[in-house]
Sequence to fold (253 residues):
Amino acid sequence: MTEMLLIENLSSGYHGTPAIEQVSLRVEAGSVFALLGANGAGKSTLLKCIAGLMPAYSGRIVYKGKDVTSETARTLVRNGISYVPEGRAIVTSLSVDENLLLGGLHVERAKVRERRELVLELFPEIRERLTSPAWQLSGGQQQMLAIGRALMSGPELLLLDEPSLGLSPLLVKRVFNQLHELQKQFALTVVLVEQNYRLTLKVAQAASFMRNGRIVGHHNAADLRTPEAYQNIISAYFGSPSEGATAEAAVSH
Ligand SMILES: Nc1ncnc2c1ncn2[C@@H]1O[C@H](COP(=O)(O)OP(=O)(O)OP(=O)(O)O)[C@@H](O)[C@H]1O
Ligand SMILES: [Mg+2]
Fold:
């Protein structure tokens, strides 16, 4: 497998205050790589850095073998990095179809038609609602639209920030199933930020755990379900392993 993304000792933050520190990770091409961790761990900050929306204080980001640490978000989108922010940033006043077309703005027409068709095959629910204003969609449909829009630019690397946020368990399952499907169909590499670790571990080939802005553990698919991985999950979410008893109860549903 070749490497799609390499992050080395990356630090960044807000107004000079660090939110992520010395983060290093490696994402193989064609894989789903999960970033897990509690609220405020720095997951979204890391995704925003990869998407070029936040500057690095230090460290570097290498995408497809090229140092892109200082590239703009616009350039990164053109080079195949697509970012779906937390909270489904779709334009609610526009129609579903207009949202999709917005995602393919700088793409040639024939490709736009082709990708739009692929997206609609993947998410048949939104095909039925193409002319509706996006605000009329349910939460799950809005999430599908947000992902669909990101796919319109023909990404090679998709950055997904908490696609399960606010969705019912049934819809979360569907979105994750579709994620699996689109990984196959689009040969995508995905960096997936999630709180829903159970579902995440089903689709991810590797996972890193973040706590207080740092990576505190990493596991590949083969050992994601081992006791050690489980301890990492607990410590990433809840602190020391001694808090595990409560943590186990908290994560078991
Ligand atoms: N716009 C901002 N301005 C200042 N500080 C911020 C901003 N956004 C996030 N932070 C801080 O940076 C740290 C990391 O936040 P981040 O949003 O990356 O966490 P997260 O892991 O995505 O959390 P969540 O699971 O709640 O989305 C937190 O301490 C947070 O308070
Ligand atoms: Mg976040």
